[in-house]
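Can't attach files on this board, so I'm pasting raw text. These are the components:
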Amino acid sequence: MTVDAVMEFRRRDARDKLTGRTRYTIDRAAPGMLHAAVLRAEVASGRLVTVDTSKAAALPGVRAVATAADAPGRFGIGVSDHSLFADGQVRYVGEPLAAVAADTPEQAQAALAAIEVAIEPLPAVVTMAEALAPGAPLVHPDWQDYEVLPVGGARAGNVAWEATVVRGDVDAAFARPDVTVVESTFRVGRQNHMAFEPRAVVARYEEDRFHIETSTQVPWTIRNATARFLGVPASQVRVTVPPVGGAFGLKFDVAIEPFAALLAKKSGRAVRLVNSREEEMLTCLFRENAEILIRSAVTSEGEIAGREAVVLMDCGAHGGEQIFLTTMTAHTLGGNYKLGAVRLATRAVYTNTPPNGAFRACNGVYNTFALERHTDEIAAAIGMDPLELRRRTVLGDGDLGATGQVFEGDVLRPMLDRMEALRARTTPHEVDDGRLYGRATTVGTWFVFTGPSAATVNMNADGSATLVTSGVEIGSGSMMQGLPQIVAATLGIRPEDVIVRQADTDAAGYDVGVGGGRQTTSLGAASLAAAQDVRAKLLAFAAQLLEATPDDLVMANGRIEIAGPNGKGFTIAEVAARAQAALGPIGGTGAATRTGVPSMPGCVAGHFIDAIDIPVFAVHDCEVAVDRDTGHVEVLNYRVVQDVGRALNRSAIGGQIQGGVVQGLGYALHEEVSIDALGHIRQCGFETYRVPLAGDVVPVEVDLFEGAPSLGPLGIKGAGEVPILNVGATVACAVANATGRRVQELPLTPPRILSLLLGREPDLALPHIQPAFADNLLRPHGPEV
Amino acid sequence: MPTDMTVNGEARTSARDPLTPLIDVLRDEFHLTGAKPVCREGFCGACTVLVDGEPTVSCLTPVAMAGDCDVVTIEGLSSCGLTDIQSRLEQGDAVQCGMCFPGMVMTLSHFLAHTPQPNRDEVRAALTGNICRCTGYERIVEAALAVAGGRAEGRR
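---
Top answer:
Structure tokens for the assembled complex are below.
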């Protein structure tokens, strides 16, 4: 059976959002609700001597106080290095020390002020260079005692995780007489999501269970992490998720939920906890800052005989998402191009800074920046047009990826052709106004984070269907468009007749969460399977009614009929009602998980995903004008050719591309996070952290590339995450072309541009990355021994 | 001292301290949660309401400043269905997370009432005080231009 779920279906939540009726977590309240607040450390490193809450607990209105003693457990995505409260040692400015709940927010704040804290300062490592220096103080002196998931990443001291890839003989490639060796270094800062809804939670403790209502992308992570921290069975935690006011990866990890849960249990009351904007900035789970060395051996024909790279990722005080993300170097910086031999080392490094996390396309964004700028430097070194170099070397059908996975289909090369056609439709912008003009085209490789998803579809006797999953509507529209479209198309009903249940861990099965481009693909695969289950049951029952076989029937436009002209049949509602009476209500379940595309044995160590199930490619192009006097970069036009597999809803995808590109423009040009020598984040709000405004942006020209192979349901791929992937790269390459200067850092703020133009920007040296690849490793590449 | 005001056409009295931000009175005392406290420093515009017809960031407005004023929030913008700009935003598939839209709609309603035939740059300039983190603005600008275009159609 083929399902055609392609529709221009408008989202059902728009009206309430436009009229202010949508109730996000921050808009929710409960009778007798208390207000919570969290006391946070003001030093980056120290020994926690005292947290005395006795005076605070005695203040009027204070109903509960919690400290480290109440939350004995540890949690972590790869390494359980995260305690809910500082556990004898303070590791970053902003680390929680205690939490209180009181009748009013003012009383809660007064209670925080009354908590007596003594911290004995210790030396801090604020940068990765400091953290990797010989004899550096350890952020986690007890790192060897932590529980580690059984994946063999090397760890030691301030290196939280080290993942390596080795394929082929790189030394031999670099020793070839016919190659030119090109070496580039790059550095990027952190990026703040600035999701409009801060992390927010309302928690209750009822019938010996926690009910956590929260603004999250990952209800099951919240369930499991809360249970770990509090030392209770996960089955005692229920998580429900109202509409989420923006996330972008920020809410892909546990945040403040366990504090509210703990205080709700202690007080016996509902507890509301909402981060202030300052707390959001302080504990942002940023896209991490990173430092990269990349070196290639390339022939005059553009063949990349060998490539090696070292990537340092700052995970902050906990390993968090970065430990997992070390995996993605292989598939991004190691992507895009055919490589003869390759070796990559990615090191997640602990520092005494606020923990980092996930942000739309994560390290793919800066790895693509590094790779594409490096590619342009290669083109210059061998005297080849950068576009020609890309045409010759991009991954094609049957080519090997960095980890030895075999890519299927020619995708990037025809996408480059499509970009050329798209570009030909607009005339270059260049005018003689004294500004420097430049243009660039880049390519990028990303993936869909497949993994377990579950769905149930209940067929109602009125002809509607209810889809139950752990999916969350974070704004992307997948719950409003893609998923109901898939179910509707499978069942032959209208998408508006598919009721979509928002996440409730008591109602739906496990799901990894909403992120990594997986919502319409993984949840979609599970939803498709569940709907097909229902379809088969309805067809079988209808076949009995019609004295036909299911194969004789068509199920479309709200009816099940015998195929052919004037075919006898019933409405689907009628079949569902009669089936309900005869057999009981009709329902179906579906599940999906990783397919598990193979890598080459022995190529990877310490990776969570050795090969990517669903690659997603992107080609971006833009033109910039650089003002020599002010250093301001204006993006004049922007174009995207995106590999979507199959576009279920072109309007929805278009909205994601415009939004993702604009977030990328902020990252490329002016979203800057800086950390002072004492470990404080300097940007504390919208005034100091500059996100794109309406006047900064251009309409993005979009061409959706369909038909590339995909293991996704109905041939689709994730489309919402990838639009940000090569924006930093494209702007950087265009600025380098405009100015003739070596762009090695992002963001390209006016001061940095002026410094480049005036020749005052020193070439980026990264002395804490060793020149010889092997000297960067904790242990030689290979399986854990 | 209590503060009297008209909110969405009804006489209301706030018992809060006069320096309480208007947004907290609207949300916590009057349970009008449409306006969103996002930055609380007047930069993002998500808390925009009309005070005596003027778009005002309610996070930086002490409730006393709204005393005896006519306050209109997103909930009170229209008594019958969607306004033109809301319809265009819905039709244009402009909404994503939606947190900025209550403020966007208030700003654009006022702008379009006073600038019936704006050009693209004027719309972009009018949105300077309203940040959107999801959409990249383009569809919001298009919706505003479509409202103006629809009016021009209507006159012909």
